[in-house]
Design a protein that fits this description.
By secondary structure, the chain is an alpha/beta fold. The chain contains 7 helices and 8 strands, in the order E-H-E-H-E-H-E-H-E-H-E-H-E-H-E.
Amino acid sequence: DWSSDVCSSDLMFVAALGARVIAVDPNEAPLSRARDLGAAETINPKTQNVSEVVAEVTGGRMADVVLDTSGRAGAGALETLGLWGRACFVGLPGEVTFTTQDIYKKQWTLMTSWTMSSIEQARCADFAVSRKLPIDDLFARTWTFDQAAEAYAWFDSTSEGKGAFED
């Protein structure tokens, strides 16, 4: 099981790899998008207790992997992580605090990730092509370079998806 706040490209890739994705977001539009991209379950933390839903969905095992792309989940993301689980925090800015005494018996692997090499990016592109993943569906809007001001205003004011510049 893979618990994640909604990051469309990550969700699409792990679902294509066969993971049962549980997407978490406080806004309905990203949750709807997550379902369209392969999320098996969605959770709105404004109306649902994330840990309780993950426990119910996983039969009490909790998530094997948690990806925090928001930078806001912090230690709350750890509440959904099961025994021997792995968590990766990529959202900025983020803060995660924990007491080792409280979690050492859980044998978690906690990590961060900033970016990937051009080799890994090429592997992701090859994977997307070989699986015929609908990459265009990741982008809610496109702009030309002369529309940059409009695009950046949209980036700053929305969580409705990703945008891209086209030549």
